[in-house]
Write a structure and sequence with these properties.
13 helices; 4 domains; single chain; 211 residues
Length: 211
């Protein structure tokens, strides 16, 4: 068997989620022979270790089929009645999700969020639509500053004077405790106020990271 043909077969077995031991048996070579070959060909995909145990083939095949239908991990998680985190772990565990698919998923999520924002969805409504928690959506928006700011049920009307003052204190480098001292209020009140407004939270986190 040519080296190229062997690489193609190994790549095919990897896509099926087979372990090193299973692949060695399919190729008709020893486990040590396969390990030696992999060491000499680091460009090949990483294989699953045997210790990961047996796979539910029916579940694996179904999930692989759903991915080929462009279903997102969130959609598949809902279909199986599990958390998105658990499904993501399963996908990575079985080499079912590539870096390219991850990148594509991020782009699709951004596109979906922009679409919902154009329809005047609130943060809570967007989180529900995406099948993620309100907190996770807020964290996502903080890390993707290029996305427009959505409405928030928690924000309500702003006291512009108070908002501007706290914003300027944060931008000057003060932490929450120092801001509280300046305004003669508890640090917990300042923390709640900052968390209520996405823009303030972004500014505060940016300042803390730079320190």
């Amino acid at each position: 068997m040519s080296s190229r043909k062997l690489e193609e077969r190994i790549g095919s077995f990897v896509s099926e989620g087979l372990t090193k031991e299973e692949i060695a048996k399919r190729l008709g070579i020893s486990y040590d022979g396969l390990i030696s070959y992999l060491k000499n060909h680091p460009e090949l995909p990483k294989l699953r270790d045997n210790k990961k145990g047996p796979r539910d083939l029916r579940k694996y095949t179904l999930i692989k089929s759903l991915l080929e239908q462009e279903k997102s991990p969130s959609d598949i998680a809902r279909e199986f009645g599990v958390s998105r985190q658990a499904m993501s772990q399963y996908l990575h565990y079985h080499n079912l999700i590539s870096n390219e698919r991850t990148r594509k998923g991020i782009e699709n999520r951004k596109k979906k969020i922009k679409e919902l924002l154009s329809q005047r969805y609130t943060r809570k409504e967007i989180a529900n639509e995406l099948g993620i928690s309100y907190h996770r959506l807020t964290e996502y928006l903080i890390h993707h500053k290029e996305l427009p700011k959505p409405k928030s049920e928690r924000e309500g009307p702003r006291d512009l004077g108070k908002y501007t003052l706290i914003k300027s204190l944060i931008e000057s480098g003060l932490n929450q405790t120092q801001v509280g001292i300046k305004l003669e209020t508890a640090q917990t009140n300042i923390s709640k106020y900052i968390n209520r407004y996405l823009e303030l939270r972004r500014i505060y986190l940016d300042r803390r990271i730079k320190k």
